[in-house]
Amino acid sequence: MALAIVVIVLLIGILIGMNINKGGTHTEKAKPTVMSSERTWRLTDSSEEGELIYDNYWKYVRASYIIVGDIPDCQLYKIAVGAPRNDYVRDRFYKDGDYELMAYHDEDGHITSKIVVDLSSFQENIDFAALKKAGVYGVCLRTGFRGYGSGALVEDDNFKTFYKDAKKAGLKIGVYFYSQAISEEEAIEEADYVLELIKGKKIELPVAFDTEGVYAEDARGDAIDTDTRTDCAVAFCERIAQKGYEPMIYSNRNWFAQNLDMSRLYHYKLWIAHYADSTDFPYVYNGWQYTDSEIIPGSETPIDASVWIE
What pTM was computed for the model? Predict the structure, then answer.
């Protein structure tokens, strides 16, 4: 019986691997490949052997797909062929230090990551010196956004003040722009808008393109297809890189899987939002926003916090 289980588990792995490798290398543009829940394996044998086979099936699936939704009623998004995987050990992410902030640790338990918080006009009365004292390494400030209905470019009300105060406190500074571009031309316009706002300022952390869903009836960015959205991300990042800054792409875990062509984006720095104790995001990433409600001295209200790995 044990030998039969081993053989079945190996066959599962081979079959999944064959499905992964269909089509060879990716083309220049490729939509996310999804497998619906109708094709996933449901547990019908509750015996010990049946549960072992079922658990191993999903172990093999996780190695090749990003799972969106609850097993087994989920969708599986194939991990882009050729994209490098991160080698982070998930149980080395845990909260540590005087303020119990999330951190990544080496095998000896030493912290090897930093904490970065992102701030915008949604936050007020920030004490940047207190943030630094609490162990915050840097801040990523919203420069502005494009209106999801009007399409207008708008500067964040707090950007200039936050920049001045963060710089005075000695924090590292990066920036992001909330995009609603629907064409490469608009994405370049957004990049140029950011470049004008940061002209003459010292930006040590990346300049991030923020792409995410609005889920409103008139949300212009929700209506575009994967190719166009990916084109926008590339156009923004390339414009930022041309001017000597480090580009980055920010989004949540599922948006990366479902709405972007990662075969074209993995060589940029990635900053993912996934609110959990650890993340199973497979690609190499430099920032993991692990919560939108961290309590840190220096902010009167809970704020977004990210583990930063350089």
Answer: 0.89
Sequence length of the chain is 310
Of 109, 93, 90, residue with least CA distance to 101: 93
**How far does CA 25 lie from the centroid of its chain?**
24
Give the CATH number of domain 90-308.
Answer: 3.20.20.80
Round to whole Å and give the CA distance between 60 and 56. 6
Which residue shows structure tokens 């015996």?
A: 47
Instruction: Convert the pLDDT of each residue in 207-237 to its tens digit.
Output: 999 999 998 888 999 999 999 999 999 999 9
Reported as half-sphere exposure (CB side, CA atoms, 13 A), residue 107 has a value of: 0
Calpha distance 23→82 (Å, rounded): 13
Domain with CATH 3.20.20.80 in the chain: 90-308
Task: State the amino acid at position 36 in one-letter form.
Answer: S
Q: Is the Cβ–Cβ distance between 262 and 283 less than 8 Å?
A: yes
Q: What's the Rg (C-alpha) of the chain?
A: 21
Which residue ranges of the chain lie beneath pLDDT 70? 1-31, 33-45
